[in-house]
């Protein structure tokens, strides 16, 4: 039989006669469209879509998916349009073909940008219909099977992309066979030498271990029969990529990887799974810490099974998977089970719903990402599911990647919960937000209405969703705050030229925006706050168009600092200014307005640049906490640090950081304290001077 005849024969076993007839029509249409086109291997091009359709036919997918598979390259590679496909085979088929088609050639500086844009389009199409990715995965699988004819550099690039993106997507969708074959082929072409060495080693080991594996198989069958279980038992060799990963992660040689064989037990129902587990524990002793119950807590892709590692004969570790026939079908077909079996099945509907939720989550990340490379980074993070299963206070299970923190959990619950989280209780006890979550943790997030994300969270979150939402929030807030600060800076400059800011008309603004090379008034104001544009220059152009810029900056009135400006105004860490200090402001490019004390030694040279130096003053009734540095020198005696800390607390201050140095009977303590203003700091220092061991105390400004 030809490939086409095999496709029609295989699909006739589950499709209606009229559906097979439509496939024949689609094949003839595709063959005509690709006439005269050949693959690099020399085969007619139609052989590729035909192979893709056969891969999907083995998953028993519907006729629309198979029709789209046969036509998936005609829009991209031939003169045929989406409208023609829609007219001939219906709009749903045309939408599937369009979703799979690559983007038109775009101007892109790097391959990574083009790749990311391609995935953006694919995910948008997936959100409408997940069958798009099933066709794309089958397309990638056949391309990987025929990759040999490509040049070495392209082979490695495609193989790396397969391992990083396509194989994890197949795994996330529960397409086990496609996932494993993509991994094997990706490994083969990414690391050809290592692949050849490993395949030779496994062939050699296979002969040595065949007898042992046969004995184990018979022993398992016999024990299950004795327990009264009707079970199918099979042995399998671990895949090369799995063996390779174990060698890399655990720094093992091939001879040290003993468990290269696994055994699968398939029984009739869930109760029998646990009975089988008990029977096998009486045959071989379990290895502590190696048992995983994916029946009680299924994986995110719907996978269910009992996993255990046992001590076999001669100390050989053996892996056992125990599942029902229904679980096995879902394990092999994953999300394709939605079409393969009756969709009224609750487990399948739940799997399909979870898949759509995952896609929607990725789309949120897509919309929040500033650029293609950032989106691709988030995508790769989210494609590697871990095995951390945690509980909400209501007992619902959330699956998070390994290494996830309480902040990741908060964003997994809802974006607003993440943005407003201030604390967490793990298993009923208060814990830091950066705590890594463990299997079985019960997590309760505490929120506050006016809380907002902390930039520090970016250093420890593990999920792309959390990272994306934090970055988006910080960028939006910083931009809004920068606009407000820029407006204040410009108004101050305009007043120095005796110009009322309210008198500037729209035409003047439009000309200034155009002359400044920015897109909008808001962007111009934000650039002023971030030091990219000089307010005095903009004010001069608005106040006196056409005149040269004089040193009008000298007459500017000072800007009032309230301490509530947010990220667009920062307080220098070298001198830690607090209300009551004489202060000066500097515009630093991309950082905004930095506030220093007037006598800070760090800014001595910077003050020569008058354009960046601004007059600033404290506002009245500032109600917030500031950081300030002090140095306390004490006699080196027992308990003195405790007395110093107690005195600081007594003065209603708090210690943010402390560094201690001891020499010749004395201890120098450098504190970063929290204080409201100079009066509060003076109160703290008076209290410290009352301690008899304190020899010297002063504020630190360097």
TrEMBL record:
Domain HD: 45-144
Domain ACT per the UniProt entry, residue ranges: 629-702
GO cellular component terms, semicolon-separated: plasma membrane
Stored InterPro entries: ACT-like_dom_sf, ACT_dom, Beta-grasp_dom_sf, HD/PDEase_dom, HD_domain, NT_sf, RelA/Spo_fam, RelA_SpoT
Domain TGS: 386-447
Domain of life: Bacteria
Function: In eubacteria ppGpp (guanosine 3'-diphosphate 5'-diphosphate) is a mediator of the stringent response that coordinates a variety of cellular activities in response to changes in nutritional abundance.
Name of the featured protein: GTP pyrophosphokinase
Species this chain originates from: Nitrosomonas cryotolerans ATCC 49181
């Amino acid at each position: 039989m030809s490939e086409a005849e095999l496709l029609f024969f295989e699909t006739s076993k589950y499709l209606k006669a009229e559906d097979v007839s439509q496939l024949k029509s689609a094949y003839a249409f595709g063959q005509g469209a690709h006439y005269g086109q050949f693959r690099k291997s020399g085969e007619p091009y139609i052989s590729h879509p035909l192979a893709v359709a056969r891969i999907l036919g083995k998953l028993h997918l519907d006729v629309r998916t198979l029709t789209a598979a046969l036509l998936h390259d005609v829009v991209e590679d031939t003169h045929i349009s989406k409208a023609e496909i829609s007219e001939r085979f219906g709009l749903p088929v045309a939408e599937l073909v369009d979703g799979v088609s690559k983007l038109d050639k775009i101007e892109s500086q790097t391959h990574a940008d083009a790749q990311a844009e391609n995935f953006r389009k694919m995910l948008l199409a997936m959100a409408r219909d997940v069958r798009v990715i099933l066709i794309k995965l089958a397309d990638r699988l056949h391309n990987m099977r025929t990759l040999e004819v490509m040049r070495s550099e392209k082979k490695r690039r495609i193989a790396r992309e397969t391992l990083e993106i396509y194989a994890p997507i197949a795994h996330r969708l529960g397409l086990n066979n496609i996932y494993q074959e993509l991994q094997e082929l990706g490994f083969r072409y990414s690391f050809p030498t290592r692949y050849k060495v490993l395949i030779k080693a496994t062939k050699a080991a296979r002969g040595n271990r065949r007898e042992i594996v046969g004995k184990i198989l018979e022993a398992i069958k016999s024990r299950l029969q004795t327990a009264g279980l009707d079970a199918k038992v099979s042995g399998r060799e671990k895949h090369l990529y799995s063996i390779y990963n174990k060698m890399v992660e655990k720094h093992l040689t091939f001879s040290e990887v003993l468990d290269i064989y696994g055994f699968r037990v398939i029984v009739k129902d869930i109760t029998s799974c646990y009975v089988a587990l008990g029977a096998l524990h009486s045959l071989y002793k379990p290895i502590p810490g190696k048992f995983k119950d994916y029946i009680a807590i299924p994986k995110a892709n719907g996978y269910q099974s009992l996993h255990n590692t046992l001590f076999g004969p001669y100390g050989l570790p053996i892996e056992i998977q125990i599942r029902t026939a229904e679980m096995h079908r879902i394990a092999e077909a994953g999300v394709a089970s939605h079409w393969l079996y009756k969709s009224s099945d609750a487990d399948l509907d739940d799997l399909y719903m979870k898949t759509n939720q995952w896609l929607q989550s990725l789309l949120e990340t897509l919309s929040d990402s500033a650029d293609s490379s950032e989106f691709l980074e988030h995508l790769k993070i989210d494609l590697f599911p871990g095995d951390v299963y945690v509980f909400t206070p209501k007992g619902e299970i959330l699956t998070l990647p390994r290494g996830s923190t309480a902040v990741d959990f908060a964003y997994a619950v809802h974006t607003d919960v993440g943005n407003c989280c201030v604390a967490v209780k793990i298993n009923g006890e208060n814990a830091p937000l950066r705590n890594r979550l463990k299997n079985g943790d019960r997590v309760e997030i505490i929120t506050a209405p006016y809380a907002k994300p902390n930039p520090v969270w970016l250093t420890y979150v593990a999920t792309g969703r959390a990272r994306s939402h934090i970055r988006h929030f910080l960028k939006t807030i910083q931009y809004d705050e920068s606009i407000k600060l820029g407006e204040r800076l410009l108004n101050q400059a305009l007043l120095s030229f005796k110009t009322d800011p309210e008198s500037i008309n729209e035409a003047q603004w439009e000309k200034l925006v155009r002359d400044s090379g920015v897109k909008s008034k808001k962007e111009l104001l934000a650039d002023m706050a971030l030091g990219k544009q000089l307010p005095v220059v903009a004010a001069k152009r608005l106040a006196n168009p056409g005149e040269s810029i004089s040193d009008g900056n000298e007459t500017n009135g000072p800007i009032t600092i309230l301490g509530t400006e947010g990220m667009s105004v920062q307080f220098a860490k070298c001198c830690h200014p607090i209300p009551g200090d004489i202060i000066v402001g500097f515009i630093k490019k991309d950082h905004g307005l930095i506030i220093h004390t007037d006598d800070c030694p760090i800014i001595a040279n910077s003050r020569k640049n008058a354009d960046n130096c601004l007059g600033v003053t404290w506002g009245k009734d500032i109600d917030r906490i500031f950081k300030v540095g002090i140095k306390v020198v004490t006699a080196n005696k027992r308990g003195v640090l405790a007395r110093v800390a107690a005195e600081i607390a007594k003065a209603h201050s708090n210690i943010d950081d402390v560094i201690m140095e001891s020499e010749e009977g004395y201890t120098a303590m450098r504190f970063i304290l929290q204080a409201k203003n100079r009066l509060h700091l003076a109160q703290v220092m008076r209290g410290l001077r009352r301690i008899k061991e304190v020899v010297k105390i002063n504020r630190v400004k360097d």
